[in-house]
Amino acid sequence: MTMLLQTIDLKTRFHIPEGTVYAVNGVSFHISEGETLAVVGESGCGKSVTMMSILRLLPAPPAEIVSGQALWGNRDLLRLSENEMEQIRGREIAMVFQDPMTSLNPVLTIGRQLTESLRVHLGMGPAEAAQRAVELLEQVGIPDAAHRLGDYPHQYSGGMRQRVMIAMALCCHPSLLIADEPTTALDVTIQAQIVELIKKLRDQLHMAIIWISHDLGVVAGLANRVMVMYAGFVVEEALVDDLYEDPRHPYTLALLAALPRVDRRRDRRLKSIPGAPPNLLVEPRGCPFAPRCEFAMERCRFEIPPLQPVQGTHAVACWVDVTTGGPR
Amino acid sequence: MKPADPLVVVKNLKKYFPVTSGLVFQRKTGEVRAVDDISFTVERGETLGLVGESGCGKTTAGRTLLGLYPPTAGHVTIDGMDVYAARRRRDLLAIRRKAQIIFQDPYASLNPRWTVDAIVSEPMRVHSILPDPKARSERVKELLSLVGLSGQLVNRFPHEFSGGQRQRIGIARALASDPLFIVCDEPISALDVSIQAQVVNLLEDLQDRFGLTYLFIAHNLSMVRHICNRVAVMYLGVMVELGERDELYDHPLHPYTQALLSAVPIPNPKQDRARQRMILSGDVPSPLNPPSGCRFHPRCPLAVERCRQEIPAWREVATGHWVACHKVAE
Ligand SMILES: Nc1ncnc2c1ncn2[C@@H]1O[C@H](COP(=O)(O)OP(=O)(O)OP(=O)(O)O)[C@@H](O)[C@H]1O
Ligand SMILES: Nc1ncnc2c1ncn2[C@@H]1O[C@H](COP(=O)(O)OP(=O)(O)OP(=O)(O)O)[C@@H](O)[C@H]1O
Ligand code: SF4
Ligand SMILES: [Mg+2]
Ligand SMILES: [Mg+2]
Asked: What is the spatial distance between Cα A38 and Cα A211, in angstroms, rounded to a whole number?
């Protein structure tokens, strides 16, 4: 498979009155053509900031990309001019966000917003753009699309608005779609509809997808590969089956053990993870999970464990081998 | 009253909200039928789950049955006391004392200008429990330690706490009046996954210790299966199914319950891929103008003409298993 995007050692910080937020602390990952990579982790672990850094969508200040590369073909996205970046954003790499209301303009009709982007990006004339807009809405399953072009965003339900966002993202046939928690705000039956839609479109259009989520359940049926983040670090990365069957990072293990299952009878109390999520205002020193980790050793508190392969493409950032409980 | 009687009895409860228009002279132009004729009981010491999609009326049901909203119709008793007949302040207070609520949003539900001590002791002031200030502040510390917080935190303000800690403060406040019954309205939805299990385990421990009865309102169907003894499913203001937990999850009868459960993702890739999903088409209709007959009929894969015409009766098809659907056999 051809490599599409490769990010190397990305570090992003925010300078705020209270100090420095260490949001992304040396993140490396890659995605190949047609692949679906899931990025999972709890609120504040740096999923969005990682992607926004790559797309250069963060306001600076307060944001500062301290180091890193994001190789797109033979270009480094972090070093392109704003003009060059605009050619890539929305065309080659498209993005769908959690809350469609913030990305749709409330005073313009859905049709106007879709045709506008088709005309700007693809230079279509009005008639051609209108026709393509209807096709796109039909493709994402908006019933009676031709008649609903004149509606405003508030006249669409949450699920329909998310479909519109997907339609807009698809309009230029991007080779990579970054979907940032696109179903988190939706009800479970609507979430299932959107996930089915994405699977269908992925197969039709051969797009690569980065799917950001805090829900290990949603990701299981969708991703080829999963990357788990904690406190701005990638702590584990594996093919989807390996991650769920053979998790190797104490955080991934704990997270999976804390999840009850809809398809199983209750057999025990939930295993809870002690403590609280990390404070990102302190410069990372040691493993970010160490204060909550049941395997932690002395070394964990002072040395940051690097992400290292354990088996094939399965990589873990941990000083301990969880299968033995001893040092790696 | 025998202890075996249900703690909470809800009969034909309705709650409609008026919809008005006009700037100067507000005219009533319709009503949102948020809760439209639901009946159920909550047994002593059990956890009854209340699930369903956003806007189906879970919060309205929970608040109306506590008397926090006046009902449009129906009857509710809590521990034998008629919630809506309690006109006298003393009776109302007695009910409030026995029945408490924990809210979804641990950020919005605590007064930001009050200290933890003021927040947790408020129910004691309202109900004149432990009037001696020293005894009261001792009790606050005891309640905080019950929910796993240090008694030294009494003079802090809510913004100094994390989400999980704030939810614990809300739980301590709910416990302050020694309630029998707590409506937990999405108590973990706003929390990180790693913190949810902490709060759920705490609620279970408190239940064991004090024999509490919970109405547990939630979106997360996996968590509901874990924590509840029985589960009720709502759709657009009505109850469509209620049953013992494993019976309901293993043998859902109502097509909506079936669709809802099949939409829940399973954190296991092989099983999730192998699963036959039942994907519902369309969106939940507006409760302003709910569909005729069975409210689920426009999205129901089994709907027949009768479903469009006739409201299905709420009936017990097997012991303890209730359902409202024309297509479910006797
Ligand atoms: N503009 C900003 N100024 C200061 N800090 C920020 C800013 N944007 C993000 N952060 C911080 O950076 C960290 C990472 O945030 P990010 O949005 O990437 O988290 P996330 O993993 O996407 O979480 P969520 O699941 O809640 O969306 C957080 O601690 C956040 O508070
Ligand atoms: N105070 C109110 N005035 C008018 N309408 C209301 C009011 N409270 C709720 N509603 C409406 O009643 C219906 C049921 O709302 P409710 O909040 O009970 O749903 P819910 O099941 O708790 O949803 P969620 O899962 O989003 O919390 C919704 O259509 C809502 O818009
Ligand atoms: S490095 Fe140490 S503290 Fe970090 S996850 Fe591994 S064992 Fe736990
Ligand atoms: Mg985010
Ligand atoms: Mg609610």
From this structure: 5
Q: How far apart are CA B10 and CA A114, in angstroms?
A: 49
CA of B99 to the centre of ligand 5 (A): 18
Which residue of A49, A99, A229 sits with most ligand 1 atoms within 8 Å of its CB, as the best mutation to test the pocket? A49
CB B173 within 8 A of CB B123: yes
Question: Is beta strand A308-311 parallel, antiparallel or unpaired with respect to A314-316?
Answer: antiparallel
From B201, B225, B266, residue closest to A220, measured CB to CB: B266
Contact residues of ligand 1, CB 6 A cut-off: A 14, 16, 21, 23, 41, 43-49, 62, 214, 280
Which ligand sits closest to the CA of B56?
2
- From chain B, the residues in CB contact with A46 under 8 A are none
Cis peptide leading into residue A61 (ω within 30°): yes
DSSP string, A87-139: HHBTTTEEEE-S-HHHHS-TTS-HHHHHHHHHHHHH---HHHHHHHHHHHHHH
Render B245-294 in DSSP notation, one character per residue.
HHHHHHS--SHHHHHHHHHS--S-HHHHHH----PPPS-PPPTTSPPSSS
DSSP assignment of B86-154 equals --SHHHHHHHHHHEEEE-S-TTTSS-TTS-HHHHHHHHHHHTT---SHHHHHHHHHHHHHHTT--GGGT
* DSSP H helical ranges for B24-110: 58-65, 89-98
**Three-state SS at B218:** coil
Alpha-carbon distances, residue A259 vs A32, B2, B182, B220 (angstroms): 30, 38, 24, 11
CB pairs under 8 A between A and B: 131
Cα diameter, chain A: 68
Under 8 Å between Cβ of B53 and B238: no
| Strands A233-239, A75-76: pairing kind | unpaired
Residue B97: Cβ within 10 Å count: 18
Q: CA–CA separation, B36 vs A294, rounded Å? A: 49
Q: Do A187 and B284 touch (CB under 8 A)?
A: yes
**Residues with Cβ–ion distance below 5 A, ligand 5:** B 59
CB contact under 8 A, A256 and B267: yes
CB of residue A318 inside a 6 A radius of ligand 3: yes
Ligand 2 contact via B285 beta carbon (within 6 Å): no
SS3 A307: coil
Q: Is B296 in contact with B235 (CB distance < 8 Å)?
A: yes
For the entire predicted model, the pTM comes to 0.88
Half-sphere exposure of A309 (CA within 13 A, CB side): 5
- From first to last of its 330 residues, what are the pLDDT tens digits of chain B? 455 799 999 999 999 998 877 666 677 778 889 999 999 999 999 999 999 988 899 999 999 999 999 999 999 999 999 999 866 777 888 888 899 999 877 777 889 999 999 999 999 998 888 889 899 999 999 899 888 888 888 898 988 887 778 888 999 999 999 899 999 998 888 778 888 898 899 999 999 999 999 999 998 899 999 999 999 999 999 999 999 999 999 999 999 999 999 999 889 998 888 888 888 887 778 888 889 999 999 999 999 999 999 999 999 999 999 999 999 986
State the ligand closest to the CA atom of B284.
2
Measuring from atom 3 of ligand 3, which residue has the nearest CA? A290
Residue B326: alpha-carbon gap to chain centroid: 27
- Inter-helix orientation angle A110-122/A126-139, to 10°: 120
